[in-house]
Amino acid sequence: MKTECKSILYVDDDPDDREFLFNAIKNINPDIEVILADNGLAALDYLKNIKNKKDLPGLIVLDLNMPLLDGRETLKRIKDDPILSSVKVVVFTTGENPNEKQSFNELGIQYISKPFNIQFLHSIANQMIEICE
C-alpha cells in the first residue's frame, strides 16, 4: 500500500522557479510540505539535521546548475549517505542533454526538463507527487 507523500525538498537557486513549483504542488495537494533550499549545501544541511529517518522528505527535486554545490555533487553526496540514499530524487533542470538524461534514467533517477510554458508545470508537479508516494 502506498503511503501518502508528506514532504518534498526542492533545491533550486532560481527563486522564481522555486515559487512556481511550490505553488503548483500546493495547488494539487496543500497537505504536502514543500521545503525549499537555494543550493546543494543548504539542502544537505537540512537533510543532515533530520533526526528521525521517517521525517526525511518523500522526494528531493534537484536542479543541476546551482552555485556553491551543484546538483550533480549534491546527488552524489545524497547517494553516498546510507540514510539519505533511500530518498527518491528527481532531477528538474533547464538542461536538455540526452546523454545526461539517459545517464540519470539508468541510475533510476527521473530527469525532467523545466518547461518553457508555465501551463505544463501543473502536470509536472502532479508527476512529482506521484513519484513521492
Strand content: 15-25%
Morphology call: globular
Question: By helix and strand content, what is the structural category?
Answer: alpha/beta
The total of beta strands comes to: 5
CATH topology: the name is Rossmann fold
Low-confidence stretches: none
CATH class bucket: Alpha Beta
Largest sheet: 5 strands, parallel
The count of domains is 1
**Helical content class:** 40-55%
Walk me through the structure.
By secondary structure, the protein is an alpha/beta fold. It has a single domain, classed as Rossmann fold (3-Layer(aba) Sandwich), CATH 3.40.50.2300. Helix content is 41%, strand content 18%. The protein has 5 helices and 5 strands, in the order βαβαβαβαβα. It has helices at residues 15-28, 40-48, 71-80, 98-106, 121-132, and strands at 7-11, 33-37, 59-62, 88-93, 110-113. The protein has a 5-stranded parallel sheet, sandwiched between helices. Strand 4, helix 4 and strand 5 (110-113) form a beta-alpha-beta unit. The termini are close together. The model has no long low-confidence stretch (mean pLDDT 88).
Itemize the secondary structure elements and their pairings:
Elements: E1 7-11, H1 15-28, E2 33-37, H2 40-48, E3 59-62, H3 71-80, E4 88-93, H4 98-106, E5 110-113, H5 121-132
Parallel strand pairs: 1-2, 1-3, 3-4, 4-5
